[in-house]
Each structure stands twice: as structure tokens, then as C-alpha cells.
Design a protein that fits this description.
CATH class of chain A: Mainly Beta
Largest sheet of chain B: 6 strands, mixed
Strand content of chain A: over 45%
Low-confidence stretches of chain A: 145-153
Number of domains of chain B: 5
Largest interface: A-B, 30 and 34 residues
Structural class of chain A: mainly beta
Number of helices of chain B: 25
Number of strands of chain A: 11
Oligomer: heterodimer
Radius of gyration of chain B: 31 Å
Number of helices of chain A: 3
Radius of gyration of chain A: 16 Å
Low-confidence stretches of chain B: 134-204, 405-417, 605-613, 753-767
Chain lengths: ~150, ~775
């Protein structure tokens, strides 16, 4: 009881992911994404969330997964992290599930190195694995190097 | 909320204001040392500060302000005269007070510190002595015979305490009752200048201090409200319900007013930033032993608060340059036949919906030879080419990123130090900078700043099926290049260029710049080009399609995307989609275009020179009965075509709906001597030149717009004067008449009241 955490879950390329539910603000379906030329590949563009600009993260790119589904519909999970809003574009969302700490394990060694940095650990559920993502790491890898030094003040 | 905390917060704010005012007053006082009223004001302000410090039991504040007050009292009573040394010591006292106040703000109690030396100086001066310490910045040894400090057996500390106890218990009480900074029974702020007594009744309408964050939130909400209104408007046509339409219309009007009022709350006078400059100039001038007078004009000009923050550092930088490097030493000035006192002029004016801030000095001007040398050293030009560069061309180098380094400061101590940083800061808030300098005569720097950052007019263009916004202030014109009747695109050392009125304009292709696609436009088809100004160059941006002009609310892209130099931000369109706003400066610099053009100028600069010195751009057009009429381009905001069906009548006036405004139309041919009544053809749209008066559009109807021409600035007066014309200029063999827009607008206004045009215009009536 003491260490139960709620996780918002979603599906992407056949894998099952979870994020601490308290980080998630809301879910949206099919928001228009405006492409931002020259942006990192992982940022598919920006969206308008009731007057706020929110960068939309292409989770296939971010996790280094191959996009096999090519489905038209995208769902955005709006996260609040490090003082800003970001949207994760995913295929499908699952339920919010409460989980005890004791099913939690560190990421398996056979994970690709890149995704191992993003995954805090794994919850072994009866029928499948739930990969828990670290939102901070998700953002960290994207941020720009900034303008060339000459122009910075 | 703790009531005491509130009172303390008020105290800090008020104390800061007093200190800022004192800064100004002291510098003013140094110039007019016999201004009794001013001394009185300063004394009173210091006294108030002391009284309130006593109330909060801030001992350090109390002691320093008391010592300051003692000295001021002597000066006020005419026992002592103010000199540089006394002013400097008093200013040091202000700095100490400021530091203590900052400490109190952080910790709610006074920071530890020892002011004994300062207090000793103040008291010694008050007693007709000299300062004992030599930490007195900017102090010039007094030429008058110095009296030794009064013999005293007391320590400074004792002296102060005694003084406080003996004279001023009464004054402290009085301060608490009347002059106090804060009212203790409620949270109202008592105006320190107001007389005691029934001041309270008038305070109900006193300004309210509002949290800035809250204001920003409100501003954001209003901006969204405007956009939501835009989405609502089309529904009225769809439903055709009268009641619904009326409701929407009132929402429309209310939103507009809300937006305007909201913008006003963010406007603050530029004097807020300037207030610190007299002190700054004085300190720098003292440091480098120069005599400089700062002249301020237009301090009441209002600017958006966020912009005020943005111009503070650039202005300080420029002013410091002016005093430090621009103004010569007094002896040097005298030798050159200039007055010993150098002048720095700070002027703010409204111009075409922008605020122009001018910083001019009458110093030695930019050290052009040093700039030339530096350009050669940095391998920006060859030695031979550098010799040919004119002064004006050399000025452009100053803004190049990294052009000035620390070495420039020490070795050359030329001006233009870090001007690229200034330029970047100004660009970041949507402004631009121009510099003009003449050897031995001085330098004039003009900053053009938009009135507000949050909302700006932008032109929408399409490129690869996506819409982009270009800030209107960087667009000079739109051109369509048709390969059939022009020379088309050419190549200039690898840069695509085209000819615009005989001058080469380099081109940038938006699709390639944004790495959307590689292809260049089909050379047999016409292309759309926006001519943009940036970083001292003019270039053409090739886009697929030119869409509409619209006011946009600028939003930052956020931390994840802000590193892309091509974008200044984004905006949300009426349909809810996001459109990116192009950063014209960023594109020009990062495409390498600026560097290329700087290295190899496209057009012979003599032409450029003339335009700067003597020529003026005008728009050439035609009226019924008059073939060649021109209007200065400064008076032209936009060109529009309106179908005749859009023109509506409002009483005797013709109007069209134009954006959020009703635009009145003026038939130019009715007002100009020799004009004939025009006959509108129902199929031909009306050509309209849009001119703004007090931010309201006015449409000048003409028969046909021809071209932009460059003509001599000096007009030849028509003799006898002709109605509606200011004079004429010669272009080649042809005479071109230039309209007198002011007169036409006046005639127009007079017609409101009188049906006929009067013989003589009484200028006073018009004011």
C-alpha cells in the first residue's frame, strides 16, 4: 500500500510504456501539428493547446523505434516537465494502472543503450512488461545546443 | 498575509523611488547649485527616508540618512556650497542606502556593514571640513583653501548618536505622522510629497500597484480572446440570425477596446529607463575627466514594459561609448574650437508607429581609420579594397558579429565596441539600429523600436504548403519577377541576384533556406519576392505565394526549439493552427548572405551615398488629369486595391472596412490643383495608398500607382503655390509634382464643417 504509484500507459510499436500519472496533464486526439523546419528529428512540430505552444515529440524517433504502424490517428499525451509543456505523440493510450514498487526492476541489460537512458525500469505484469519512462531524460536529449557562440550575448 | 510584511514591502518600493529621484536631483543640483527649492526637496526626501527607517528601527539606514541630512541641511541653509566633492560623497551615501535597502528586501533585516567612514565624511563635510578617506570616486580636489576638520574628541559613532538624540527626536515623530512612507493603519501608500492633513481623501483614486505576472497573464488572455473573436466572426454570416449577429458585434467591439486598454497598461514612459542616465553620464564623465551634459527630450514617450527592459542595456552601452570614446577631453575640445562641455543628446519620438530613440553626441566621431585597420586585420577586406572604402561603408563593419574584441577596446579604444551585441539585443525586440558618424563632428545612433512586442503586423507567405509570417517592419516591398519582361535571375559570384530599378538585389529561396526542398523555382515562371532589410543589407526572399497581412500575437517557441536562427517565434492563426514567424536577421546572417555582401558589395556605393545624403524615395502615381504625382514613401504604409462594391457611404464620406478599422477614402484628384473628377469603372478596382494618421488608416484613392522613384530631397517651390502640392522635383527631363499630404488632410477636415474650400487656411483653427 505504501509504495503504490499510478501510471498512465500507452502503446508504441508493439511495446507498452508507462509514465507517472501525476506528470500527465491531459490526453488529446489529432491535434494539428505544424512542422518546424530545421528542428531536431525528434520534434515533429508544434501544436496549439488552447493558446499555448507545445512542442510535439515523435516518440518513435525519440525511442529509436521503427515506425511500423503508420496509423493516421495520433494521440498526444501532454506532460508537464521541467517547467514546460511537451506533447508525446503515441499510437494508443491504455488505462491508468496503480502498481506496487515490488514488481519494479531495473532495465534489462539487453536493452539498446539509447533507450536504456530513457527507461527508469520495468514493471513485470502478468501478461506483459511495462517500461517506465523518465520524462526529464526525454527532454534532455532534445534540447538544442543553442545559437552559435558569436551571436550569444 | 502578514500585515507587517506588506508595510515593509511598500517601504522598500517607496524608498527605491526616493533614491532614484535623489539620483536625478543631485546631478541636477550640481548644474544649478543655487536652486533652493531643489535643495529643499532633496533635504525633505532624505528626511522622510530617515523617519521611516526610524519607524522600522533600521539603524544603519537611519544613521547614514541622518548624516546626509545634516550635510544637506547646511547646504539648504546656505552655510555651505555644493561642490563635486560633496555631491560625490552624497551620491556615495545614496549608494550605501540603496545597498542596505536591497539587503532588507532579501532578509527583512538590515545587512551587516560599517558605514562609519562614510558617515564621518558626511559629517566632516557638514562641519566645513574635508573628506578623510580617499575612496571618493570622481572627487576632484577642491581648489578652495580647505579648513581642517573640526577637532572632536568623540568617535564618529558617538557623534551620530548624539546628533540623532539631540536634534531630531521631534523630527522623527513628525515623520511618522505625516511624512511617513507607509500608512500603518491600512495598506494605502501616502504620497510623500502630499501635504499632511486631508491627503487621505484623495488617495482613493491613487494608482494601484499590480503584480507584473498578473498583467502578463491578462495580456495573454486578451490576446487569446482576440483570436477567439476572430474565429467567432465568420459564424454571423453562416447563421444570418440578427440577434446573434448583434451579440457577436458587441463582443467584437468590446474585445477591441479590451485589447487597446490592455496594451495601455503595459505602456510606460521611457523616463523609467532614462532616470538612471544623468547619474551614469556624470560618473563616467568624472572617471575620464570630461565635461559632459546630458540632454533628454521626449522622456514621456511611452513604450511597452518588456521593450523598456530590452533597451536598457543597449542604451547604457551606447551612452557609455559616447561619453568614454566619443566626447573629447576638455582641452582637446577647446583646441578644436568646440565648447568645453560635451553634449550627449537622448531623444525619443514617435515615428510611423515605431519609437525612435536617438543618441547623439558632438564628440570626435567614430575612429574610421581604426575600423579600417581592424577590418583588414580580421581579413574582412583586402588592404587595397579597404583604402577605397568610404566612411559610411566602414560603419557597416561595426555591426559585424565578433568584429570588436577586447583588443579593440584597449589598443584602439575606438568606438563601436560590442556594437554587434547592441544590435542583437535591439533585433531581439524587433527593433533596428542605424548609425551615422562624421569625423570630428560626432556620432548619431538611431534605434527604431516597435511600440509593443506582443502584437505586430506581419505578412503571411506560403512555402511548400505551410504558412509563414514575416514581420512587417523588415519588409520594404513586394516584387513579382516575370522572366518575360525582366532580365530574370542572374548570378553574382555564386549568389543569385536580380535587378530592381537598376540595382542588384541578392536572393534567398525560402524553401532552400528552411531545408524544405532543394529545387529552385522554374526559370520560365514568375516568382514572388519579398524585399527585406536586415543587418544593413537588402535582400529578396523568394516564396511560393504571398498571402495576407495580419496582426499576430508573438509567442516564443520554447526551450526545445529556440535554437533555430530562422524563427523569431510562432503565432496562432484564426483557425487554431500554428504558423512560424521568420527571423529576418537570423536568416540573413546564417545563410551567409550578410557576410558575402559585406565582402563583395553588389552595388557601387556612390549611389547608396547619394540616397543617404540627398535623395528621398517617393511613390509615383497618376490621378485623373494629373500624370506624374509623387508622395514621399514615408507617408505610404501599404498599397491596396478595393473592389468598388466594398466602398460604403458614411454620410458624405466614402469608407471601406480595413482590418479592424473603418478607413476613410480621400479622392486625391478632388484636392489637388489641376485634378479632374474621376470616373470609376465598375470593373476596375480602386487603387488606394494607405496612410496612417494617429494609428488610424486613411485611404488615398489614386488612378494608378506606378513605381518607387528616388528624387532629390530638395523641392522646388511652385510659384504661385498650388493647392495640394508641396512643390516639384525634376527626374531627368520630367517634372514630378509632390503632394502636400498635410494640406490635403487639412482641407479634408475643413470640409466637415464648411462645404467650400476657404480662400485662406487659418492655421490656428486647425490645431
Amino acid at each position: 500500500m505504501s509504495s503504490t504509484t499510478d501510471f498512465a500507459t500507452f502503446y508504441l510499436g508493439g511495446l507498452y510504456f508507462g509514465i507517472t500519472a501525476t506528470d500527465v496533464l491531459e490526453l488529446n486526439k489529432n491535434l494539428d501539428v505544424t512542422r518546424v523546419p530545421k528542428s531536431p528529428k525528434t520534434v515533429r512540430g508544434i501544436m496549439n493547446l488552447r493558446g499555448q505552444l507545445v512542442p510535439a515529440i515523435d516518440m518513435y524517433e525519440r525511442l529509436g523505434l521503427e515506425n511500423t504502424s503508420h496509423q493516421q490517428e495520433t494521440i498526444s499525451i501532454i506532460l508537464q516537465c521541467e517547467g514546460m509543456l511537451i506533447a508525446l505523440l503515441v499510437d494508443n493510450v491504455g488505462e491508468i494502472i496503480p502498481l506496487e514498487q515490488d514488481t519494479f526492476e531495473s532495465p534489462p541489460n539487453n536493452f539498446p543503450k539509447m533507450s536504456r537512458e530513457l527507461v527508469l525500469g520495468v514493471h513485470k505484469l502478468p501478461e506483459k512488461l511495462l517500461l517506465i519512462l523518465d520524462p526529464k531524460q526525454l527532454i534532455k536529449g532534445i534540447a538544442f545546443s543553442g545559437k552559435p557562440a558569436l551571436l550569444s550575448v | 498575509m502578514d500585515n507587517n510584511d506588506d508595510i515593509l514591502a511598500e517601504f522598500i518600493i517607496e524608498a527605491r523611488e526616493i533614491l532614484d529621484q535623489l539620483d536625478l536631483d543631485f546631478v541636477q543640483l550640481e548644474e544649478t547649485p543655487h536652486d533652493k527649492k531643489l535643495v529643499g526637496n532633496i533635504f525633505r526626501a532624505m528626511h522622510t527616508l530617515k523617519g521611516s527607517s526610524g519607524f522600522f528601527a533600521f539603524k544603519r539606514l537611519e544613521k547614514v540618512s541622518h548624516a546626509g541630512e545634516s550635510l544637506l541641511g547646511k547646504i539648504r541653509d546656505g552655510h555651505l556650497a555644493l561642490d563635486t566633492q560633496k555631491t560625490s560623497t552624497l551620491l556615495m551615501a545614496l549608494d550605501a542606502l540603496r545597498e542596505i535597502i536591497s539587503g532588507i528586501e532579501v532578509a527583512n533585516t538590515e545587512p551587516a556593514g560599517d558605514d562609519a567612514l562614510l558617515i564621518a565624511d558626511l559629517l566632516s563635510l557638514a562641519n566645513g571640513g574635508e573628506v578623510s578617506s580617499n575612496n571618493n570616486r570622481g572627487a576632484i580636489p577642491s581648489p578652495q583653501p580647505s579648513t581642517p576638520p573640526l577637532e572632536t574628541t568623540q568617535t564618529t559613532e558617538d557623534l551620530v548618536l548624539d546628533a540623532i538624540e539631540s536634534e531630531d527626536i521631534e523630527a522623527t515623530d513628525e515623520a511618522l505622522m505625516g511624512d511617513s512612507l507607509v500608512a500603518t493603519d491600512n495598506e494605502m501608500v501616502v504620497d510623500t510629497a502630499a501635504p499632511t492633513g486631508n491627503a487621505r481623501t484623495t488617495e482613493v483614486a491613487a494608482p494601484v500597484k499590480v503584480n507584473l505576472e498578473l498583467l502578463d497573464k491578462l495580456m495573454n488572455l486578451v490576446s487569446e480572446m482576440v483570436l477567439a473573436r476572430n474565429r467567432l466572426l465568420p459564424f454571423t454570416a453562416e447563421f444570418g440570425d440578427h440577434n446573434f449577429s448583434n451579440t457577436v458585434r458587441s463582443i467584437d467591439l468590446l474585445t477591441l477596446e479590451l485589447q487597446e486598454r490592455m496594451m495601455k497598461t503595459r505602456m510606460q514612459p521611457i523616463s523609467q529607463v532614462w532616470a538612471k542616465f544623468p547619474r551614469l553620464v556624470r560618473d563616467i564623465a568624472n572617471d575620464c575627466h570630461k565635461k559632459v551634459t546630458l540632454i533628454q527630450e521626449g522622456a514621456e514617450t511611452e513604450l511597452d514594459r518588456t521593450l523598456l527592459d530590452g533597451i536598457r542595456d543597449p542604451l547604457i552601452h551606447i551612452i557609455r561609448n559616447s561619453v568614454d570614446h566619443g566626447i573629447e577631453l576638455p582641452a582637446e575640445r577647446l583646441a578644436k574650437g568646440k565648447p568645453e562641455n560635451g553634449k550627449v543628446l537622448l531623444r525619443a519620438i514617435h515615428e510611423n508607429g515605431m519609437v525612435v530613440i536617438e543618441i547623439a553626441d558632438d564628440g570626435g566621431g567614430i575612429k574610421f581609420d581604426a575600423v579600417r585597420q581592424k577590418a583588414v586585420d580580421k581579413k574582412l577586406v583586402s588592404f587595397e579594397d579597404a583604402k577605397k572604402l568610404s566612411d559610411i561603408q566602414l560603419l557597416e563593419f561595426i555591426f559585424l558579429p565578433g568584429f570588436s574584441t577586447n583588443q579593440v577596446v584597449t589598443n584602439l579604444s575606438g568606438r563601436g565596441v560590442g556594437m554587434d551585441v547592441v544590435k542583437n539585443n535591439i533585433s531581439a525586440i524587433g527593433g533596428s539600429i542605424e548609425i551615422d558618424s562624421h569625423r570630428g563632428k560626432g556620432t548619431n545612433i538611431r534605434l527604431k523600436i516597435p511600440l509593443t512586442l506582443a502584437i505586430m503586423p506581419a505578412l503571411f507567405v506560403r512555402c511548400e504548403n505551410e504558412r509563414y509570417a514575416i514581420p512587417q517592419n523588415s519588409i520594404s516591398e513586394m516584387v513579382r519577377i516575370d522572366p518575360n519582361n525582366s532580365t530574370g535571375l542572374e548570378d553574382f559570384y555564386g549568389t543569385p541576384v536580380f535587378r530592381l530599378r537598376g540595382k542588384l538585389v541578392p536572393l534567398l529561396f525560402l524553401n532552400q533556406q528552411l531545408k524544405l526542398s532543394e529545387h529552385s523555382p522554374d526559370s520560365t515562371k514568375a516568382i514572388n519576392v519579398a524585399i527585406l532589410q536586415s543587418s544593413g543589407i537588402s535582400f529578396g526572399l523568394v516564396v511560393d505565394e504571398v498571402l495576407n497581412m495580419q496582426e499576430v500575437v508573438v509567442k516564443p517557441l520554447g526551450a526545445l526549439l529556440k535554437g533555430i536562427p530562422d524563427f523569431a517565434g510562432a503565432t496562432i492563426l484564426g483557425d487554431g493552427r500554428v504558423a512560424l514567424i521568420l527571423d529576418v536577421d537570423g536568416m540573413a546572417i546564417h545563410s551567409g548572405l550578410v557576410a558575402k555582401i559585406q565582402a563583395r558589395p553588389l552595388n557601387p556605393e556612390t549611389v547608396f551615398d547619394q540616397v543617404r545624403e540627398e535623395e528621398v524615395s517617393m511613390l509615383l502615381f497618376e490621378l485623373a488629369g494629373l500624370e506624374r504625382i509623387a508622395i514621399p514613401l514615408d507617408n505610404v504604409e501599404r498599397l491596396e486595391n478595393f473592389a468598388l462594391s466594398r466602398v460604403q457611404r458614411n454620410g458624405s464620406r466614402e469608407v471601406v472596412q480595413y482590418g479592424d478599422h473603418i478607413m476613410h477614402l480621400i479622392r486625391m484628384n478632388d484636392y489637388i490643383e489641376g485634378g479632374q473628377p474621376s470616373v470609376d469603372s465598375p470593373t476596375q478596382p480602386l487603387s488606394v495608398i494607405v496612410h496612417y494618421v494617429n494609428q488610424m488608416p486613411i485611404g488615398l484613392v489614386v488612378s494608378q500607382v506606378h513605381d518607387i522613384i528616388h528624387v532629390p530631397k530638395k523641392l522646388q517651390a511652385a510659384n504661385p503655390p498650388q493647392r495640394g502640392l508641396a512643390g516639384c522635383v525634376l527626374m531627368g527631363e520630367k517634372v514630378i509634382n509632390v503632394v502636400d499630404l498635410q494640406e490635403i488632410l487639412m482641407m479634408r477636415n475643413l470640409q466637415e464643417h464648411q462645404k467650400t474650400y476657404p480662400e485662406v487656411i487659418d492655421m490656428d483653427v486647425l490645431r
